[in-house]
Specification:
This protein is of the alpha/beta class. The chain has one domain (about 10-335): TIM Barrel (Alpha-Beta Barrel), CATH 3.20.20.70. Helices cover about 30% and strands about 20% of the residues. It has helices at about 50-65, 85-90, 110-120, 130-140, 145-155, 175-185, 215-220, 285-295, 300-310, and strands spanning about 20-25, 70-75, 100-105, 120-125, 160-170, 190-195, 225-230, 240, 245-255, 265-270, 275, 285. The structure holds S-adenosylmethionine and iron/sulfur cluster (SF4). S-adenosylmethionine binds near residues 165 and 197.
């Protein structure tokens, strides 16, 4: 591998500095969440998925270009064999400020401590319900108690921060918002509520279940006094604090109701090595082909990356009528 040196960094055509990359390490998952996947999914053949070495090479390339934060995601990153070793190698890249991960929590009882020891700094864990039957209905295959035990294991493992992610859907889990907030506050965890995005045809109309961040906020305000905060994690979430619970933050991720594109600092790598310039647009480039065509020199990869960034879209264009605009499923996008 040729050292490409430290350049000016990755700046897109609109002057936005890209210092955050989300990398999907697999499109596979042990859950089939209703908002993310169809019940019957066909996953990629293994040879089409980037190898661990290819993921590591891309991570090193990004970090050499000034990327400070990498999030490993999926699919479910913890179903990928060799994930802990990959984390250890990426976390050790000089210049990377933090390696973080998004997980559904199902494997954390056994993997939380190894991940923390490998250098993963923060975890986002999805938790859409505290009712075992509803949890099963939303995830189709998930076991709530396994995930709750996984969250306990993560709390004990000593991550810098743990954040719960909740996709809120009317009639499915909107009534559970207050209980989920109390669960997070009792443990000093952060919690973010996400508006469902129209990614992939999941076999139901999304519009009917759409629940806006403003509605979620109103539900929480019934039992807690919320304090607006100007904090930002460099991402799309807007945060509030809760009177009496200084440790936790509540985030609202609102791709529909609050457009956050002008400060977008991120790109995504899919499990098959497509660089997605915007979650809400189809623009992408095939980094896997470049990786395999140029096994020993990074210069062509870097040139393609720089060129592609010039075409990073100004903004996404989700509407809340539930129409699918993007045919990719979220698990293929590096959520
Ligand atoms: N399997 C891991 C998990 O569930 O946390 C990581 C991958 S998942 C695709 C990443 C995040 O995307 C999760 O928090 C999930 O809730 C969210 N997500 C998936 N599909 C979504 C959709 N259509 N709209 C909004 N968020 C979605
Ligand atoms: Fe799997 Fe995460 Fe998608 Fe649920 S949201 S199906 S856990 S990848």
């Amino acid at each position: 591998m040729v050292d490409t040196g430290q350049h000016e960094g990755l700046i897109d055509g609109l002057g936005r500095r890209i210092d955050y990359v989300r990398m999907s390490v697999t499109d596979r998952c042990d859950f089939r969440c209703v908002y993310c996947m169809a019940e019957d999914m066909t996953f990629l053949p293994r040879q089409q998925v980037l190898s661990l070495e290819e993921i590591e090479r891309l991570a090193a390339l990004f970090v050499s270009q000034g990327v400070k934060k990498i999030r490993l995601t999926g699919g479910e990153p913890l179903v990928r064999r060799g994930i802990v070793g990959l984390c250890e190698r990426i976390a050790a890249l000089p210049g990377l400020r933090e390696l973080v991960m998004t997980s559904n929590g199902s494997q954390l009882v056994k993997l939380a401590q190894p991940l923390a020891d490998a250098g993963v700094k923060r975890l986002n864990i999805s938790l859409d319900s505290l009712d075992a039957d509803k949890f099963r209905a939303i995830t189709r295959t998930g076991d709530l108690y396994q995930v709750l035990a996984g969250i306990d294991a993560a709390v004990s493992a000593g991550f810098q921060r743990i954040k719960l992610n909740v996709v809120v859907m009317k009639g499915r889990n909107d009534q559970e918002v207050p209980a989920l907030v109390d669960y997070a506050l009792a443990r000093g965890l952060d919690i973010s509520f996400i508006e469902e995005m129209p990614l992939g045809q999941v076999g139901r109309s999304r519009g009917e279940a759409f629940c806006s961040s403003d509605e979620v906020r109103a539900l929480i305000s019934q039992s807690h006094q919320l304090i607006d905060s100007t904090e930002s994690s460099g991402g799309p979430a807007r945060y509030v604090r809760v009177e009496g619970f200084p440790q936790s933050r509540i985030g609202f991720i609102s791709p529909h109701s609050h457009n956050f594109c002008s400060t977008c600092n991120r790109v995504r790598m899919t499990a098959e090595g497509r660089l997605l310039l915007c979650l809400g647009q189809e623009n992408s480039i095939d980094m896997r082909a470049l990786l395999r065509r140029h096994p020993t020199t990074d210069a062509p990869l870097l040139a393609a990356l720089q060129k592609a960034l010039q075409g990073k879209p100004a903004h996404h264009d989700f509407s809340s009528d539930g129409d699918v605009q993007i045919l990719r499923f979220m698990n293929a996008s590096g959520g």
